Amino acid sequence: MNARSYALMATFAALAVVLNTIRIPTVYWPGMFYTICDIPVVVAFLIYGFKIGILVEVLHILGQEIFFPAGPGGIVVYPMGLIYHTLMFSGIYLAGKFINRRAASPGQFGEKKRAVYFTFFAAAFRGGLMPVIDSAVLYNILLPLVLGVAIPEAYIFALVPSFVLYNVTTTLYLVPVAYLLARRVSNYLGLKPQLPIQI
Asked: Which residue(s) pair with 25 in the sheet?
């Protein structure tokens, strides 16, 4: 990577931190918000691959902890971003592999079709696995450990549909927007994506 790539990486991370200011509360999961701060992280992943995508997310988490502290809960909630981003990245990566194997010609899968596949695979990975992690790890282990209060099992069980809905709906707007932006940025700056994903 050259100096321009490092500057872009820092820009993606800083933009992700700044976008934390835009939050729309969910009505079905108390204390959760729809945000757009993850879009720069996914854009970085689509252009530079897993390593840079995760590094941008780590910088984003540090910025959240510094500029948007959420008390003791934030210590464990913010780092969950590493998990759900890894799940989305894995889904997008596998979608790219799937498209490459199925494509008889380079133009067979257009921009819209690729965006649909990326979104579907990412939503399946995050929506299928993250609710299990939220209920089993976050609400049963980490939050009780940090807050010093056990969360009732009935409350956690009642939130499971919210976990699924949130993780799926977040992915449905996050991935297509990030994909579109990644295409525009990479074309404008003449960047070559580092993944087996044609963006």
From this structure: 33
**Is 107 in a helix, a strand, or coil?**
coil
Residues across the chain: 199
Is residue 197 a part of any domain in this protein? Answer: no
Q: 26: which 2 tokens?
A: 């969910």
C-alpha span between 55 and 130 (Å, rounded): 20
Token pair recorded at residue 40: 């720069």
CATH number of residue 96's parent domain: 1.10.1760.20
End-to-end CA, the chain: 19
Residue 33 DSSP label: E
Q: Which domain holds residue 63?
A: 3-189
Q: Is residue 92 part of a domain?
A: yes
Q: Is residue 195 part of a domain?
A: no
3-class DSSP state for residue 23?
A: strand
pTM higher than 0.90 for the full model? yes
> Does any domain span residue 198?
no
Burial class (CB in 10 A: 0-12, 13-18, 19+), 156: middle
Residue 85 near residue 53, CB atoms below 8 Å: yes
Query: Radius of gyration of the chain from Cα atoms?
Result: 17
> In 3-state terms, what secondary structure has residue 110?
coil
Compute the Cα dihedral for 80, 83, 85, 91 and give only its sign: negative
Please give the tally of structural domains in the chain: 1
Per-residue pLDDT tens over the stretch 116-161: 999 999 999 999 999 999 999 999 999 999 989 999 999 999 999 9
